[in-house]
Amino acid sequence: MADLNRHSMLEDAQGIAYGAGMAAFAITILTHLGLVTGQTAGLAVLISYATGWGFGPVFFAVNLPFYWLGYKRIGLRFVLKTFVAVGLMSALAMVFPHWVRFDHLNPIVGAVLFGAISGSALLALFRHGASLGGVGIVALYLQDKTGFRAGWTQLIFDVAIFALALTLRDVPTVAISALGALVVNLVIAVNHRRDRYVAT
Question: Which residue ranges traverse the bilayer (predicted)?
Fold first, then answer.
């Protein structure tokens, strides 16, 4: 009997394509405004700002060390889907600035849009058994090994990212960026429940 909770290959492809595409569009908004964010994407954004390197290649490279932990902690299926999602997002993040231009975008509105679009992108990826890699994998690994809560690990990392951002951006810009990160987390917290949605 077929598992009704399991997504078909076509459904997975659509979900991952949507998630990666919307995440790349959200990063286009973020970097257009010179804002920052948390997690692995935030680290890649800061490296991009500090070096002048493109976000896409940096994000792809930053995620490479995390795949082994993802394989050990969650499995090959998750890692392969995540690798595809990260690769697609990285590629699209390089071309979106050539496809999309903003004549005027209020930074606060842009931060909220970034958060909402990123949140929906991550929800799509989670529901199809993928992610955008990075810190979340390490957080789960440390939780398994030490009992230290994954949420605290992610929070500590984000605090460090935003503190580091103050060396590259002014306080108002970092504050507006924090609003965007808050919206991302609220979208996920309200809409992603393992007992209601099964990602396979």
Answer: 16-35, 41-66, 78-99, 105-126, 147-168, 174-191
Encoded tokens for 125: 């990826």
Tokens linked to 131: 């992610």
Question: Would you list the domain boundaries of the chain?
Answer: 9-191
Distances (CA, A) of 153 to 15, 132, 146, 156: 28, 17, 12, 5
pTM of the predicted protein model: 0.85
CA 200 – CA 191 distance, rounded (Å): 17
The tens digit of pLDDT for each residue in 34-71 reads: 999 989 999 999 999 999 999 999 999 999 988 888 88
Residue with tokens 């908004």: 29
Q: Which residue has the tokens 């680290």?
A: 43
- The DSSP-derived string for the chain is ---TTSPPHHHHHHHHHHHHHHHHHHHHHHHHTT---SHHHHHHHHHHHHH---HHHHHHHHHGGGHHHHHHHT-HHHHHHHHHHHHHHHHHHHHHHHH---S---HHHHHHHHHHHHHHHHHHHHHTT----THHHHHHHHHHHH---HHHHHHHHHHHHHHHHTTTS-HHHHHHHHHHHHHHHHHHHHH--TTT----
DSSP assignments along 48-105, one per residue: HHHH---HHHHHHHHHGGGHHHHHHHT-HHHHHHHHHHHHHHHHHHHHHHHH---S--
